[in-house]
Write a structure and sequence with these properties.
The structure holds three protein chains of three kinds. Chain A is an all-alpha fold. Chain A has a single domain, classed as Ammonium transporter fold (Orthogonal Bundle). Chain A contains 18 helices and two strands. Chain A has helices spanning 19-41, 43-66, 71-76, 79-90, 97-113, 125-136, 138-141, 158-167, 172-175, 180-189, 194-197, 203-208, 220-233, 239-258, 266-271, 275-282, 293-313, 320-337, and strands spanning 144-145, 176-177. Chain A has a two-stranded antiparallel ribbon with strand order 1-2. The N and C termini of chain A lie far apart (54 Å). Chain B is of the alpha/beta class. Chain B has two domains: 2-332, 3-Layer(aba) Sandwich (Rossmann fold), CATH 3.40.50.11540; 374-510, no CATH class. Chain B contains 13 helices and 16 strands. In chain B, the strands form four sheets. Chain B has a five-stranded mixed sheet with strand order 13-12-16-14-15, with helices on both faces. In chain B, helix 5 (215-225) links the parallel strand 9 and strand 10 (231-236). In chain B, helix 3 crosses helix 5, helix 4 packs across helix 5 and helix 10 (389-397) packs across helix 13 (428-509). Chain B is elongated. Chain C is of the alpha+beta class. Among the domains of chain C are: 35-96, Electron transport complex subunit B, putative Fe-S cluster (3-methyladenine DNA Glycosylase II, Chain A, domain 3, Orthogonal Bundle); 103-161, Alpha-Beta Plaits. Chain C is built from six helices and six strands. In chain C, strand 2 (127-128) and strand 3 (136-137) form a beta hairpin. The chains are: A mainly alpha, B alpha/beta, C alpha+beta. Chains in contact: A-B, A-C, B-C. The interface between B and C is large, with 37 and 35 residues.
Chain lengths: 357, 510, 188
């Protein structure tokens, strides 16, 4: 009897792993921080999140249809949803609906499908969209809402939240303010030193995430827990987060020791502006990071260095997105020069010399 | 002693789900019913096929030489049972394509009568060359699956002065447990075979490496090796592909085998456990290699077992004995599930290399739902050879075979770790096997076009030479004709002149 | 006002730079390396004429001059097209390329009359024979140009596909098809 017709080779058994499995696990790791962030900023944040994710699914479906492929399996692999999720997490929580839609369009169409779809993009799509939005719509992307948790008195109700999301925030001064990094930068421009600017800063609150910031980038502890869980599951390797965070910490410590009035402490660096999200979830994106452990360490260190430089001396208070994009462009170069050593050959690829016993 | 080796390192590899417990707890079954017909391929080894010396209709005894080895790297073939030769012809080979190769078909007479073997009292009195000769004459090849003629390897070992003989008891492939059972039940014979091999290579150190998922086998081998201080039995970590010879050499001795060199050039050689057992049988009992222990396992097998079968048994008969449910079988695999070949049907014979025959159900197989590569680099992490499968497969997909070769395609050992771990179910090993074949085909095509040019140039030169020759002949012929005519004209002129003279003379006379 | 001057400036700049590039392209041109021989060496050399050129060397010349696409040689198939494209840096469109079926000529001994017409035309001397003797084709040297089939008076010479044996069997390339009708990508 003919059991199979075309010769099949190679490993006939496989590990129970699939692309959607990986994506759903990452989303699971993001869940605590996301839920916390959505609760922290109330209904408008929830609206924005839903709009962003739904429009990403829509744009992905359109692109796949245009290629003449079946839509459902591609959506079900979860990559578009994850991209939109990460993008939404980095947006200001009360941003208007069109920021989410345009961001999703940029991320999915320009950041992913134009390059050839899953696995072919050069830049991280979520970061590409964020940077494009930041440069195109600076006002909307730097309007940070106050902390107004759901079911608390100052949180807008559902109807009011639709109004905020679909037609804009009414009284900006009462409901918005600056993030800690942004505040420090503007204070520097007015020649106020750190000891003055940080008078009302609470390290603990910042660590938990009770402060102004992106939709769910604020909570270091929840994001860190998710990242460590991903490490344990083997979804990501330790090289990029470790090198990224260490580099930022080392540079911040050096400069803080030199002059602690002008340079922010490493703890503040590590706990603000979504550094933890970048370290564990964004810089570790498979498609845009190097393939080898050594390459990943170089990548992470480069990201950390650039983040520190942009935050300290750049015009923007938050440099993670730019740093990631710059290092993404260096990834092919890193992969070209840093390669594993083949068994029986030396690092240059020549066969080893025989060493007789 | 082994604490002296430097940096034991395992690179890459996967922790494959074992499934060995399906068959490793029970004894080897030796009551397999003798098949009516045996199909014995003439090439069950690396090198030139054996050449038959029997004819159709001959009566043969078990262990009788059926085909002699040809050339330096070859191996003879013996009768797995007594009977009559039915045919020497081409039959489907145990290969994914089931294309035909030459086989001897033997009809058994049920008596299973051995030939009278030459028994040796003390094999250690034999010279090492003699040991090699006997091992070669017994048709022993690497039974781990590589099927390299063992005698040739022993000779190479002698020439290169081996300081460590490693006996590969790793059996890292899932489902297979034939080596495990062999070690548990016949440890003394295996150790004896190891000692004979050491004698045959004039070497004095052997290390038996057993994966640590086989504690009883380790204990049995350790007990058997205790009286012999030259043989050391160690445990190695369980990780596929620990049994890859180069990985094992690096782990046990700390040395790496350079690319393009054989392991004997660095003073190490590896033989499989089953091969050592076969050497014992050949030298002590004079029995050539005519049967082997095979693991029959898989989800579709109702009675999974390790069974000793004569070589040339059709897989259909093995499956019938083990009550395999063919309806549930999604794939038949000869060998292990990582590197074994998928066979198209069961009408194919088992050969010396068959360490296992698996009947896997659909749920046990890896999904063939291929998705785009997400560049997760799991394949880079697990590759034991240090290659980058994702980049190589990408290049091959875009038909850039030269780039794939630059990345190290020729160093791929087809272990299957990358295919195993790929979350997008990309058939990576098939890409590499295809590309290797394609590179060879292109080289052959290039060679052929060079040869064609040469042939055409030769032919044109020959045509020109013929044309020149003809011209030359033509010229000579014309010249000769001209010469003849000149002579004729001269003669005619001379004759005319003579006639005129004669006439003139006559006139003057008158 | 400023816009107008900007437009004028940039246009002039573009024109000047383009002129400079054109001059450089003409007078500073680098002579190309002897790639002609290399291209010719990878062509099959059977002078079959299927490319439309009177032989492999003229085809190679046309390729180097850019007058022929990389897919010009049908017997070479996609493999040859890629090699040519790689050597010359050409764009490659493999959609219309069919893999060539490998053929060899074979003499049917029953009908061969020994007329010797075939081996006189074989460009690689792949046919052996003598007058009034049955001829035979040396398969290794046959390049499937079909000249012998055309001249054989008894049609005993036919083209046969090369037999696939265990020695020359090769693995197929895994082809992944993303089809609208299927719900998943399937491996062929």
């Amino acid at each position: 009897m003919m059991v199979n017709i075309k010769p099949k080779s190679g490993a006939h058994i496989g590990a129970k792993a699939s692309v959607s499995h990986i994506m759903w696990q990452v989303m699971l790791a993001l869940m605590p921080a996301t839920v916390f962030g959505l609760w922290l900023f109330g209904w408008p944040a929830i609206n924005l999140f839903i709009v962003t994710v739904l429009s990403a699914i829509f744009f992905e479906a359109v692109c796949i249809r245009l290629q003449g492929r079946a839509v459902k399996p591609v959506i079900m692999d979860g990559s578009a949803i994850l991209t939109a999720w990460l993008l939404a997490m980095t947006l200001p929580p009360w941003a208007p609906w069109w920021v989410g839609v345009v961001g999703s369009a940029l991320a999915i169409i320009l950041g992913k499908q134009v390059y050839g779809g899953l696995g072919q993009n050069l830049f991280n799509p979520a970061m590409l969209a964020r940077v494009a939005l930041l440069i195109s719509f600076p006002i909307e992307l730097t309007t940070w809402a106050n902390v107004s948790p759901l079911f608390f008195s100052n949180s807008p109700g559902l109807i009011e939240s639709w109004h905020i999301t679909f037609s804009g925030i009414d009284n900006l001064d009462a409901t918005t303010g600056a993030t800690i990094l942004g505040y420090i930068k503007t204070e520097f421009s007015q020649n106020h030193l750190l000891s003055e600017s940080l008078k009302e800063y609470s390290g603990l609150l910042n660590f938990i995430g009770w402060g102004r910031g992106s939709l769910s980038e604020t909570s270091v502890i929840l994001l860190g827990a998710g990242g460590v869980w991903l490490l344990r599951q083997g979804i990501i390797q330790w090289h990029i987060p470790a090198s990224l965070l260490l580099t930022v910490a080392i540079f911040a410590s050096i400069f803080h020791l030199i002059d602690d009035q002008h340079y922010v402490s490493p703890m503040l660096h590590l706990s603000s502006g979504g550094l933890i999200l970048t370290a564990f979830f964004i810089a570790t994106d498979y498609v845009t990071s190097p393939n080898t452990p050594t390459g990943q360490i170089v990548f992470g260190a480069g990201c950390g260095f650039l983040i520190f430089v942009i935050r300290t001396w750049g015009a923007y208070p938050e440099g993670a997105a730019f740093a990631v994009l710059l290092m993404n462009s260096a990834t092919p170069l890193i992969d070209y020069y840093i390669r594993p050593r083949i068994y029986g050959r030396d690092r240059q690829g020549k066969p080893l010399e025989i060493t007789k016993s | 002693m082994l604490s002296f080796f430097t940096k034991p390192r395992i690179r890459g590899g996967v922790h494959a789900e074992g499934y060995k417990e399906l068959t490793s707890a029970d004894k080897i079954i030796s009551t397999f019913p003798l098949p009516k017909t045996l199909y014995i391929p003439l090439q069950q080894h690396v090198g030139k096929p054996a050449e038959p010396l029997i004819r159709v209709g001959d009566k043969v005894l078990k262990g009788q030489l059926l085909a002699y080895s040809q050339g330096l790297i070859s191996s003879p073939v013996h009768a797995p049972s007594s009977g009559i030769i039915l045919d020497v012809n081409e039959y489907p080979a145990p290969h994914p394509s089931a294309l035909p190769i030459r086989m001897i078909v033997l009809e058994t007479d049920g008596k299973d009568e051995w030939i009278k073997p030459p028994i040796v009292d003390d094999p250690f009195q034999l010279t090492p060359e003699d040991i090699s000769l006997r091992v070669g004459a017994a048709g022993i090849v690497g039974l781990g699956g590589a099927t390299f003629p063992t005698a040739v390897k022993l000779n190479m070992g002698r020439e290169n002065s081996i300081d460590t003989l490693i006996i590969n008891g790793a059996e890292c492939e899932p489902y297979l447990s034939c080596d495990d059972r062999l070690m548990q039940e016949r440890a003394d014979q295996i150790i004896d075979g190891v000692r004979l091999m050491l004698h045959g290579m004039e070497s004095d150190r052997a290390v038996v490496a057993i994966e640590d998922n086989k504690p009883q086998a380790f204990y049995a081998m350790q007990t058997a090796a205790r009286p012999y201080p030259l043989i050391e039995v160690i445990q190695i970590p369980t990780r596929y592909p620990m049994g890859w010879d180069r990985q094992l050499i690096r782990y046990v001795t700390g040395k790496e085998v350079p690319v393009g060199c054989r392991s004997s050039e660095i003073g190490v050689t590896i033989h499989n456990i089953s091969t050592a057992h076969a050497v014992h049988n050949a030298i002590r009992k004079g029995q050539p290699l005519v049967s082997r222990v095979v693991t029959v396992s898989g989800g579709a097998v109702r009675r999974p077992m390790n069974v000793e079968i004569p070589l040339g048994t059709l897989i259909s008969e093995v499956f019938a004995f083990c009550e395999v449910d063919l309806e549930q079988t999604a794939r038949i695999i000869m060998g292990g599930p990582m590197m074994g070949d998928a066979l198209p049907h069961t009408g194919l014979p088992t050969v010396k290399a068959t360490s296992g025959v698996l009947a896997l159900t659909e749920s046990e197989l890896k999904s063939t739902d291929v998705q785009p590569c997400i560049r997760c680099a799991s394949c880079v992490t697990v590759c034991p050879a240090g290659l980058r499968p994702l980049d190589m497969a990408n290049n091959i997909r875009m038909n850039q075979l030269d780039a794939a070769v630059d990345l190290g395609l020729k160093d791929c050992i087809s272990c299957g770790c990358c295919s195993y771990i790929c979350p997008s179910n990309i058939p990576l090993v098939q890409y590499f096997k295809y590309a290797s074949g394609e590179v060879v085909a292109r080289q052959q095509a290039q060679h052929k076009s060079e040869q064609t040019k040469r042939l055409m140039d030769d032919r044109n030169a020959r045509m020109e030479r013929i044309a020149r020759q003809q011209e030359e002949e033509e010229r000579i012929r014309i010249a000769a004709k001209v010469e003849r005519e000149r002579i004729k004209a001269e003669q005619a002129a001379a004759a005319a002149a003579a006639e005129a003279e004669a006439e003139a003379a006559q006139e003057t006379l008158v | 006002m400023y816009v107008l001057s900007a437009i004028v400036c940039l246009t002039l700049l573009g024109l000047v730079l383009g002129l400079l590039l054109g001059i450089a392209g003409k007078y500073l041109k680098v002579e190309s390396s002897p790639i002609l021989d290399e291209i010719e060496s990878i062509l099959p050399g059977s002078q079959c004429g299927q490319c439309g050129f009177p032989g492999c060397r003229p085809a190679a010349e046309a390729l180097v001059e850019g007058k022929a696409p990389a897919t010009i040689c049908p017997p070479g198939g996609s493999a040859l097209a890629e090699q040519i494209a790689a050597l010359l840096g050409l764009d490659l469109d493999l959609s219309a390329v069919k893999e060539p079926e490998l053929l060899v000529a074979r003499v049917s001994e029953a009908t061969c009359t020994g007329c010797t017409r075939c081996f006189k035309v074989c460009p690689t001397d792949a046919i052996v024979g003598a007058p009034k003797q049955i001829h035979a084709v040396v398969a290794d040297a046959c390049i499937a140009c079909k000249k012998c089939v055309e001249v054989c008076p008894t049609e005993c010479l036919q083209m046969h596909p090369v037999e696939v044996t265990l020695r020359n069997w090769r693995w197929n390339k895994p082809i992944v098809v993303f089809d609208e009708s299927k719900t998943e990508g399937a491996v062929c």
